[in-house]
Write a structure and sequence with these properties.
The protein is mainly alpha-helical. The protein has 2 domains: 38 residues; 424 residues, no CATH class. Helices cover 68% and strands 4% of the residues. The protein contains 20 helices and 5 strands. The strands form 2 sheets. It has a 3-stranded antiparallel β-sheet. A hairpin with a 5-residue loop joins strand 4 and strand 5. Helix 4 crosses helix 20, helix 16 packs across helix 18 and helix 19 packs antiparallel against helix 20. The longest helix has 33 residues. The N and C termini lie far apart (61 Å).
Length: 509
Amino acid sequence: MAFWEATRLHKLTNWAPAGFGPTLKGSARRDFILQWMVVGAVGIALGVFTLAVSSLPQQWALLSLLVVLFPFVAMIAGNVQRLLLGIIIIEIPIQLDVYLRYQEEAAALGAIGGVNLSLTTLCLAVLYALWLAELLAKKSTPRRPLVRLSLPLIAYLGAVMVSAIGARDTNLAGFQIFLLLQAFLLYLYVVHSVRSRQDILFVVTMLIIGLILQSLMMIGVRFVGHDISVGNISARIDSFSRVSGTFGSPNAAGSYLTLLLAPAMSVLLTRVRPGYKWLAALGFGLGSLALIFTLSRGSWIGFVVSISILCLLAWRRGWLSPTVPVIVVILALILFLPLQEVISVRLFGDDAGAAQSRIPLMRLAFRMIHDNPVLGVGANNFSIMIQRYATAEFGSEWLYTVHNQYLLLWAETGIVGLVAFIWLLLAILHRGWQSWKSADRFLSPIALGFTAAILGHMAHMFVDFFIQRPQVQLLWLIAALITAIHLESGKTRNAGESGAKNCVPSLTD
């Protein structure tokens, strides 16, 4: 019996299909058996996971599934770092996340309600683990002055941390600090890893793909007329037919679109292959329509500011034909005519006191600033301080976090935090402007598009606040991309590579 079993095992391990390869013998036979044992063990583990995951809450089940599938996707993709960065860019607006220690009452008044853990958090952890492994193996060296390039962000992050010392609720302050730390880590990684034109094109392409996906969801919700949910992902429309997509509000969705529409249009000014331009044109068209459906007047203002700056400067340099703005205007009119009534009512009709309600909130913010001008009331603490400063005269007013990013920062982090934040924005604009001046036919238009988008976003900040994860992480991601573009354009100038101006990646790069 033992002899028969040994003979059967010998035949099995020495079997090979015709044309498969030589007969397995010796160590190759042991490797063959080991490989099938591993495959069997993985199969059993996946089966157990499938049974166990059904008992988990929906959001944890989805995150667990993504964790399990990631190694297999990574093996197929090859470049794990690029895959992870692409996942982050796509996930930021979709928001596959959970909040721990959630404070419902504070969140209902506009605060960050808990500790945010997301797919982006997981991807960042893996990216930094890989980066550390490369440093320990001496395969990677920090060739860029990351500290110097990050000084405005470090100053702002430091100001937020200092303000938490005097915060009434340090837990709420910690929620914002944790979110900003994630955004800062994302900034550092992008500045470190985006080192070439191919890398820049990859990040821009992923941003446009994210724009297209979000726009399609928003347009779909608008035409269906009700919320659409798939698993943990929900695209929403409110009772006033204002579309917010996967964001918490139409204004937040509008700010996301405004930050990406000008960059999408700027791709049309570059010398890349037509495939990229068609993708950018699709993103710009769908995003513009989705922006209308948000009915966000602040986002519309930001869009007009950014597109006007982009078109004006590109035309002055001779990169934009006068017919292009005419075509854009014609297309805008085509979109405007079917939606004329909706847009007109939003701009000139009764808004149920939405604009007027912002004035009492500003007065409330100035009261907090008067009492705490230097360090503020504490990061993410505006919401819980409302009752303390809302005297009897505010009895009939709508009380919420002030809809002005600059006043909110001044009230929560004091003049120190406000100055640090303005320094951050000005540093981004300066780097973008310097890159635009390089006249590089690939880097220069891209830099102009993102710089114009930041200017439009800054205009929008006067009438709304931006503290939620997608808004914060997207802004800091764009800051990192502009910094990477600035370094790449500076490298080209210093090297004096005249031919580099026309050296752009192809669609197959």
